Amino acid sequence: MQDATAQKFDSWALNGKAEDMQRGHYKSVSAMLRSARFGNEFTFLDVGCGNGWVVRTVTSRHPGCRLSVGIDKSANMISRAASDPGNTGRERYLCADIEEWKHRGRKFDYVFAMESIYYADSVGAALAKIYGLLRPGGVFLCGTDFYAENTSTKRWAAAMGITMHLYSEGEWEDMLVRAGFKVRVRRLKDPAAKDAWKRNTGTLFLRGRKPTG
Ligand SMILES: C[S@@+](CC[C@H](N)C(=O)[O-])C[C@H]1O[C@@H](n2cnc3c(N)ncnc32)[C@H](O)[C@@H]1O
Q1: pTM (two decimals)
Q2: 142: pLDDT strictly greater than 80
Q3: Which domains, ranges and CATH numbers included, belong to the chain?
C-alpha cells in the first residue's frame, strides 16, 4: 500500500504537473547544477527525481557522468522517467523511499534534491541517509522553495493535503550541519520571474560537502 505522498505524486505524474515542476524549477536547478563544477568522472543521485528531468540533464550535458540515478517513491514518476526518450543509457531509475532505500553499490560523488526532502517522514533521517550515500569529499545540492521565510509558499501544505515539514533557513542549515556536512547557504533569485517570491525571496539552496577527514 503506497503512502499519501506517493499517491499524490502518482497522480501528478499523469496530469501534467511533473512538467509544470520541471518548468517551475528549471532556473534554480540550473544555478544549483552550475555551482557543482562537475569533474571528468563522477556519479550523481537525484532524490525525489520526479519525471527524471534532472537525471537526464546531467547525463546529456556531462559526458563525464558515468552513472546518474534517480529515485522516487512514486511508481508513476519512475515509469515516466524510465520511459523518457531522452535517456542516454547512463541513467537508472528506482522506485524507493530515501529513508528505506538499501543501496549496495559505490558511494556517490553528488547527491541532488530539489523540493523533495521536506516530504520525508523525518528530514533528519533523510539527511543522515544522504550523508551516508556520499563518498568523503562528495557534495549534496539541496534546493527548497518551501521554507519559513518564503511566506507565500506556506499555503502549499494545506493545498497539498500531505505532510510537508516547514523549516526556516537557519533550521535547514543546522540540520545539514548535524548530519555532518560543511554547509554553504544561498538564495537563488530570478529578477525576471512573474512570481514575486521568486524575484524577492528565492529558492533556498544548501550546498553540503562531506568532509574527507
Ligand atoms: C515536488 S516533487 C519534485 C520533483 C523533482 N525533484 C523536480 O524538481 O521536478 C517531489 C518528488 O519527491 C518525491 N518524494 C517525496 N518524498 C520522497 C521520499 N521520501 N523518497 C523518495 N522520493 C520522495 C515525490 O514522489 C515527488 O516526485
Answers
A1: 0.98
A2: yes
A3: 4-31+38-209 (3.40.50.150)
